[in-house]
Each structure stands twice: as structure tokens, then as C-alpha cells.
Amino acid sequence: MLFQVYGDNAVWQWLGWILVFCCLIGANELARRTKTGGIVAFLVVPAVLTVYFVTIYVAAAAGADWALNNPTYVHMTSWFHYAKLYAATAGCIGFMALKYRWGNIGKSDWFKCFPFVIVAINILIAVVSDFESAFRAWGTTWVSTEGVTLMGGWHNVFNGVAGLINIACMTGWFGIYVSKKKDDMLWPDMTWVFIVAYDLWNFCYTYNCLPTHSWYCGLALLLAPTVANFFWNKGGWIQNRANTLAIWCMFAQVFPMFQDYSVFSTQSVNNTNVNLAVSLVALTANVLALGYILIRAKRQGVNPWIQEAFKGTRDYEQAIARAE
Question: Any stretches that span the bilayer, and where are they (predicted)?
Fold first, then answer.
């Protein structure tokens, strides 16, 4: 098994997974359907949390006991968590600018490449983290600033390469649209080909580098936007992904005890062979996805990054039918 979901806490672990999955889907729907919901979720709440985070660190530097013992200060000290939170939030704000056509930026054609840029940045943050483990502890283990034991080796390299390939699998960078109902930013060319490759790569990243969190941020968090895209929000996957990621990062940063030391806590098996197998699956999927994209682009005579490569496919046509 990939996770230690057996024993006395198994029922709580599965219940926790179901709660996270359902809450993320619900929170995404609230944030995407109205302008007020999006502003509260991705402008107001992050602003309040920023004040909270700064206050904690200033107070901790001054030696205040409440800050030194604060769960966020003790358990969420890695640079990665803050980078991911603010990069994901920036993506949500940029997507709202495009969706609601805020200002000159939201109305401009050049800004339509923003989704590609911010997703690439988010992928690179994770790739750097994978390579960090390989560099710090090749063939052995190291303990992160949060006290988590991580393994370094080929699994990190293979998945880091998979992440770089995954960036190249994003096609139709300027093919960004607004839905007729004005509730979604659509990227029709981001079909199941990319989504599956991304999900496998990102799951492997969390499995390699966040073994105590991967049950939630590697499975529940990835499946929530994917399910929404496949069943009722076709073409809106990247918006779903950014929304759920930002919301999850905010929750996890303030309430780390949910994952780290409660009945809901779930560990991966943390086995080198398992990590290697997962990374090879992720790398293979991304190589196949990029190969398919290049073959399709050659047959159509298009540049798959500047032009849309998946016109005529079922996913693309269902998504573009929702555009205004």
C-alpha cells in the first residue's frame, strides 16, 4: 500500500480524506461562482493571514511564548509552504482578473499567457524541492526543518524531470476564454492529456517530499479539481486547481495539527522502492503526454504552445462550447 491507512485510526483517516475532498469541492464552488466569493477567498482572507503570519514571526523573534509555541511557527516553517501558498493565491487573483476583465490587464491579449506562467512557476517550486532532497541526501535520508524524514535519490531526479516535461505539456498558452455565465476562466486546450500527466507528477512530488501530508494534498487535493472538471466544469480545471490549492494551503498553514498530530494524520509508507516506482509512473506518463502532443501538433501543422493543439477532441469541444 502507498499509505499507512490501517489500524486503530483507519476509520478516522478515511473520514478525514472524505471531508477534505468534499470541503475542497464545496469551497471551490463558493469561490468561483460569484465575484464576492472570489474576493473574500483570495484577497481578504490572504491579507488577514499575512498579518497573522508576520505577527507570529515578529513575536517569536522577540521571544514571546505564544508565538514560539504556535502550531504554524512550529510545524510549517519550510520555505515551500509559503511559496506555494502565495504563488497559488497569485494565480487565483490573476485568473479572476481574466474572468472578470479587471482593468487593462484583464482585457489584454498578452495577459492570457498568465495562466501558463503561474502554473509553470508553481511546478518549478515543486521541482526545486524534489531536487533539493536529491542534493541533500542522495541514497540516504535528511530531516526537514519541520522534523519530517525525507529520502534522497533517483526518485527525486525522475520526478523533477517529469515536472519539467509537464511544463512543456501545457499547450495553447493564449487560448484563454470566459464562460458564458462569467463564472469560469476556461483553458479548453488543457485536456485530460495534461491533467492526468500533471496529477501523476504532482502526486509523486507530494509523495516524495511531503510524506506526512500526501494522503490529503496528494490525493484529495488533486482529485477535487479533476472531478469537477470531468463532471460539471469542463475546461475550468486550472481555475479549480488554483482555487483548491490556495484554500488548502491557507487551511494547512493555520491548522497543521490536522495532518501532523491528530487522529486524521496519515503517513506514507516512506519506502525507497515505492517512491521509485511512483516516480517512474509519473515520468512515463509525462513523456507519453509530450510525445502525443508533438505528434498531434505535427499532423495539424501547428505550434502546440502558441496555437491550440486539441481542437476537434471531445474535451476541447465541450469546453469551448461553454465560452462566450
Answer: 12-31, 38-59, 79-98, 110-128, 157-178, 185-201, 213-232, 244-264, 276-295
Element (H, E) at 185: strand 185-186
What's the pLDDT tens digit per position in 170-213?
Answer: 999 999 999 998 899 999 999 999 999 999 999 999 999 999 99
Pairing mode, strands 177-178 and 141-143: unpaired
Asked, for residue 34, whether it belongs to a domain, the answer is yes
- As a whole number of angstroms, the distance between CA 127 and CA 295 comes to 26
- The angle, 0 to 180 degrees and rounded to 10, between the axes of the packed helices 114-136 and 237-254 is 50
- Assess if residue 1 is contained within a domain: no
Contact between 173 and 113 (Cβ < 8 Å): yes
Are 9 and 259 within 8 A, CB to CB? Answer: no
Q: Is 3 within the bounds of a domain?
A: no
The pLDDT, as a whole number, for residue 8 is 87
The domain of 316 spans 9-321
